[in-house]
Structures are given as C-alpha cells and as structure tokens.
Amino acid sequence: MSQESMQASIGRAQRYIDEHAGPVARTPMRQRYHFMGPCGWINDPNGLIYYKGQYHYFYQFNPFSSFWGKMHWGHAVSDDLVHFRSLPIALAPSEAYDDHEQGGCFSGSAIEKDGKLYLIYTGTANRGDGLEQTQNVAVSEDGVHFRKYEGNPVLCAPEGVKPDCFRDPKVWEHDGSYYMVCGVQKGDRGQALLYRSPDLLHWEFFNVLLESRGELGYMWECPDFFELGGKWVFICSPMGMGDRKVVYFVGDFDYRTGVFCPRSQGEVDWGLDFYAPQTFLDANGRRIMVGWANGWQWMTQFKDWGPTYHDGWCGSLTLPREVTLSDDGLLSCRPVGELSLLARDEGSMPRLRLAGGEDAKIEAGDGVAFRLSFDIDLRASDCSSFDLLLRQGGGRQVVCTFDLEHAQLRLCRDGSDGWSRGASRSTLDLCGRDKLDVTVYSDQSSIEVFADNGTNVHSMNVFAPSSQNGVSVRSHGGPLALEDVSWCGMADAPIQ
Ligand code: FRU
C-alpha cells in the first residue's frame, strides 16, 4: 500500500515536471554548467554516491513551486561529474512519518550494501504534537526505483533532543559495521550524535561525536564525518553562528570509543551562498564535496533567493570540489579536474603588470561562463589592493578585492545586478609568502572564487543579464604583478 502511495505522488510530480521543465529551461538566469533541478525549488545535495559506475546526485526538491515546501528527493546521474541526466524522483512524501506540507523527505545520505542502494533520510511530519523528525530507510535494486522500508522509522529523537531538530543522517561503513552521524539541538546547543548498526536497519546510540558549548550555534544541520589523509574531518552547517555558516574540524577519531578529538577548525566556504555541503568517495578514492548554492532567511547576510522564482525555479548546486588536507592541516576544496571537459577558447599570458590606478581587460570566454586563474606575485606587487571586476556592464559589477595591505579577500555584490547585495570577507594568509593562487569560476548566476590552494573559498550568486560580461583587473596604490594568467570559456552542460 505504502509503495503505491509513494508511486502515485511521484507520478503526479513527474507529470508536473514534464509540463514545466521546457519553459523553465529557456529562462535567462538558468546556470549553464552548474547543477539545477528541472523546475521548482531545490536545496541541499543529498545521497551523493558513486554507485555501479555512475555518480548519483539526489537533492532536496519541491517540484511544484519556486519556494521551499513538502520535500521530495530529486535524482540525476552522471558519468563524469559534469554532464548530468535527470532520473525520476527517488523519494516523495507518502507516509505518516514523512508526509506533511511543512515537512517531507528531508536531507540524508546514500550507501551501497550487498549491491543495493540504500537511502537514509529524515522524515518530517506532524502527527498532532508538532513537527517531529525521524530517520528512515529506502532501498533500490536498480539505483532508480526506491521502496521505503516497512520498519520505518529506524530511529526517533532521543530523550532531551528537540523532536523537530533531529536530522540529516550521514552514513558510512567500517569493518562490516555501519555508522551514522546526525545533527540535533539539545537545549540551546548544537550536537552531532553518533550511532552504530550491524545492518542499516537497527541502530544504537554510540556517542556524542561533538557538541557546541554555546560557542558553536544552537542546531547543527547536515553533519558529515570522514577520514582524510590520516586525520578525521567533521563538517556541519551550524545555525546561530553569524557569518560562519559551514565549519570544519580536523582531528583524530577512535572507533573503539566513538571519541573525536578536534585539533583545529576553519571555514569551508566564506561566500554568502554556500550551505549544507555533503561529501562522498569516488572510485579512485577522491573525496568530493558539493554544496547548495544558497542559504536561509535566518542567516545574518541573507538577502533572498534571487529573482528566478518569477521564472519557475530556484536554486543550484556548487561545482563539485575535491577535498584534501593542505600541508598545514587546512581543508582544501578545489574544483574537480573533470571541469576541464568544458574548457573552450583557452588563452594565457605569462605575466600581467599594472601600475597603481591602471586597469586591464581580460577576454575570458563570453565574460559570463568562464574560468580565470592567476598567481599573485607578492614580492613584485606593491599595491595596497587590487580589484577583480566581474560581470561588468551598464555601471554594474561584482567586485572581488584582494586587499594586500590588510590581508583580506572580499567579494561584494552591492551594485551588481540591482537585486542582490552583501559582501563576504575572509583573511588571507600572506605571512612570508611569495605568491598566492586564485581561480574564479563564473556562470550565468554564480561566482566561485578559490584562493590559496582552495583553503579560502567564496561562493556567491549574482543575477545579472548576459550583457554584463566585462572582466577586468584594477590596481590601487602601487604596482600589481600577476603570473601565469590563464582563462577559458566554459561550454554549456545542460541537464538532459
Ligand atoms: C539544510 C536543511 C536540512 C533539512 C533540509 C530541509 O538546508 O534545513 O537541515 O534536512 O534543509 O529541506
């Protein structure tokens, strides 16, 4: 019975998508090579996995509206992380534990077991006592059609945890056992709870993996936990930490005790539009991260989700980024090499020198969808700052400032499109350095800046027309020296 009601919901959603995806695809702000849903609203990436030779992306999806509501899991596959093909919706609200207008099938993860694909997700529903969140399982034999487990829910909120703040399970396997980390609110503090299971269906509490003591927010969304280069990395999206929206901790973990000892922490991405990232391992052991390129109303710098709701859609995902630890133990996130499949009309110059007050144009692709990279020669640059001006036109622009005097990187979209506003800001580590690398990816409605080997990242949306396609560099207060300047256009990669 329950399988039939989910299939009926999926059928309704698919018919709506078939009718609306065509017109939505022709609207002007659609990304050209970033991942989007076919229509409606999307948020977090879910269930990212390399399964039977293909990359699977699932995502929070409300196909019926450009605003959040009643969450489904959208689904797409890719052979190369760049070109995607849409598949039928994987999960739709249908059960007492996941069917509600203000709920549905919330975020979660995927894992392969005995050749089958398991999705572990949060059901959010209201059975009369307010919204309640539980962890649930769905299984597929073919990686396309999923059946919810009859024994759901497999986990309910423990004593003391806010019933509507127990969500976003991230699952992995080790030595034949399964582990899950879940985000919760306990009192006014965020926590990550660790569970253990022999079979993905029966779970026991193992330990509090990490918790806020008031300094790290009141609720932790979308926790992730994985081994990387001999260390362990915990990532979460904490609510109530101001500009710090996605934080990471690096430390050591002991499977015998379930104890995680974080030694250092940092920011995954400082941009105004980056949230709820999830990582997964591919066939070659690369750790890959994808985030939602937006944020929520409660965030300090939140403006809104942009004007695309007029066009029947909202939300895209960031570029897939390979995650590594830098030599000094920082988390480094760099766009995957496969993106070069889209590179067109490549150009380069060994160096660019500008006197103070001087500027230079750069012809990178069509000035909208492009990649631009360079190294700042810090010895030969004596400017106080320089601006990389993006999406220029009609008196508008996005300003990416490298403030060498105050060691800051700022990405400002005030005055960029007549709609967006706000600026993100991070500290650049320039101490004793000879050079600093920068790579920028621009698409129709987003900009991602990767500096310092991917340890200093800013992702931000901008909704400028294609006529805003100028790119230039301007030096302030002294000479600027850039080395190895290279650029290319990025070809379209529409989701099929
Ligand atoms: C994060 C989040 C998750 C939740 C999902 C609901 O953006 O709030 O905590 O599962 O979105 O769509």
Sum up the overall morphology in one term: globular
CATH evolutionary superfamily of the largest domain: Glycosyl hydrolase domain, family 43
Question: Could you say which small molecules are bound to this protein?
Answer: beta-D-fructofuranose
Beta fraction = over 45%
Distance between the termini: 32 Å
Supply the number of structural domains. 2
Measured on Cα atoms, how large is the radius of gyration?
A: 22 Å
Mean pLDDT: 97
The strand order across the widest sheet is: 23-34-25-30-31-32
- Count of helical stretches: 1
Look at the structure and give the CATH class of the largest domain: Mainly Beta
CATH topology assignment of the largest domain: Tachylectin-2, Chain A
Runs in which pLDDT lies below 50 for 5 or more consecutive residues are none
Overall CATH architecture of the largest domain = 5 Propeller
How would you characterize the largest beta sheet? 6 strands, antiparallel
Structural class: mainly beta
Helix content: under 10%
**Would you report the number of β strands?**
34
